[in-house]
């Protein structure tokens, strides 16, 4: 590929109305998260799970929300290099990115490589050229698009890093986020994992540029629903020679993603504030409710361990009796042999799986 075609704009003007609406939608979403009735940590864990599920599925990983929620305790014999663990790599990458931000590391190639290393550490990649945390050393093809030869990747990514932090560029910061994301996907710096890292890069750039107060804005659930629109927008950069169509696409995806996230949070908040929902009519109800909001598919052992960390000690049979007496929790999977019953809160899980 002619590397000259990979130039990115340093001056870009765009219609204020779509831009202003997209910016406002992010602000509304961020404010709703910050003022949620649900603990922010609980809420973010749910949004991260949703991102992990959908962004992985977009890349061909066969994964369900139920398997992903259960996986962190190894329920069902899930092990390393399974599709579920591969999907959880997205969560690992987010946590690694958050840690680096907390340590004061700016978004850079070092930052991006570290996230990729976390993402790919349990991935089932068949390509032997995949090196977690390292730029590719082979040429690749993505559909009919051929990214630049591998020897150009370090220089292109170095320029992109400079572009991220160049404050003299006369471009709206949100449009700049869209340009950076598209350019990352065009360079395709890794042998695998580019889509997942590229979409997470949007989340971290929104935090870096002050649109969100924390890394909380995840776009993949809506992009999955509109993936043809998304990929067509990226292709227009290459085959029509302009950025306008992509920026229109990107701002539309941002606005749509905000709307979806706002609906999810409002529905979860409404459910959380319902005094009759997950009310076990005892002094431990709130602890159990918080646990189930964080993990709507679970086992008694997982709940028991959580309660003990809150200095609440209940017997296994006592917990089972409370769960079995609730209309808000059902048995998803009956125990077999040494395995436990798996319980599910259909209302919470339904909100997270029915809205994309």
TrEMBL record:
Binding sites annotated in the UniProt record for ATP: 192-199, 230-231
Mind listing the GO molecular function terms for this protein? ATP binding
Keyword ATP-binding annotated: yes
Q: Any keyword Nucleotide-binding?
A: yes
Pfam families (alphabetical):
Fic
Active-site positions on this chain: 188
Q: Which InterPro entries match?
A: Fido, Fido-like_dom_sf, Fido_containing
Q: Looking at the record's lineage, which domain of life comes first?
A: Bacteria
Fido domain spans which residues? 107-253
Keywords attached to this Swiss-Prot or TrEMBL record, sorted alphabetically, are: ATP-binding, Nucleotide-binding
The protein's name is Fic family protein
């Amino acid at each position: 590929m002619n590397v000259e075609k990979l130039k990115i704009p340093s001056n870009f003007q765009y219609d204020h109305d779509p831009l202003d609406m997209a910016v406002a939608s992010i602000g509304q979403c961020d404010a709703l998260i910050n003022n949620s009735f649900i603990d922010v940590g609980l809420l973010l864990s749910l949004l991260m799970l949703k991102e992990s599920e959908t962004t992985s599925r977009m890349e061909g990983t066969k994964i369900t929300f139920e398997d992903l929620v259960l996986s962190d305790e190894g329920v069902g014999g899930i092990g390393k290099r399974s599709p579920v663990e591969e999907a959880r790599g997205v969560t690992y990458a987010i946590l690694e990115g958050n840690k680096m931000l907390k340590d004061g590391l700016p978004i850079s190639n070092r930052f991006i490589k570290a996230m990729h290393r976390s993402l790919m550490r349990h991935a089932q990649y068949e390509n032997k050229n995949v090196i977690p945390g390292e730029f590719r050393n082979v040429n690749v093809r993505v559909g009919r698009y051929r990214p630049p030869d591998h020897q150009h990747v370090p220089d292109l990514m170095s320029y992109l890093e400079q572009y991220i932090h160049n404050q003299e560029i006369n471009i709206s910061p949100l449009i700049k986020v869209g340009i950076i994301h598209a350019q990352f996907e065009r360079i395709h710096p890794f042998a695998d994992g580019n889509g997942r890292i590229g979409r997470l890069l949007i989340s971290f750039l929104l935090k870096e540029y002050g649109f969100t107060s924390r890394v909380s804005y995840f776009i993949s659930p809506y992009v999955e629903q509109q993936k043809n629109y998304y990929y067509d927008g990226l292709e227009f950069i290459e085959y029509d020679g302009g950025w306008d169509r992509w920026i229109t696409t990107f701002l539309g995806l941002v606005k749509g993603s905000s709307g979806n996230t706002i609906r999810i949070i409002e529905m979860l908040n409404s459910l959380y504030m319902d005094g009759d929902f997950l009310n076990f009519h005892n002094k431990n109800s709130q602890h159990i409710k918080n646990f189930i909001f964080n993990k709507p598919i679970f086992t008694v052992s997982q709940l028991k361990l959580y309660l003990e960390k809150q200095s609440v000690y209940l017997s296994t049979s006592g917990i089972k009796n409370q769960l079995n007496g609730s209309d808000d929790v059902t048995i998803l999977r009956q125990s077999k042999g040494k395995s436990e019953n798996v319980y599910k809160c259909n209302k919470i899980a339904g909100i997270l799986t029915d809205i994309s």
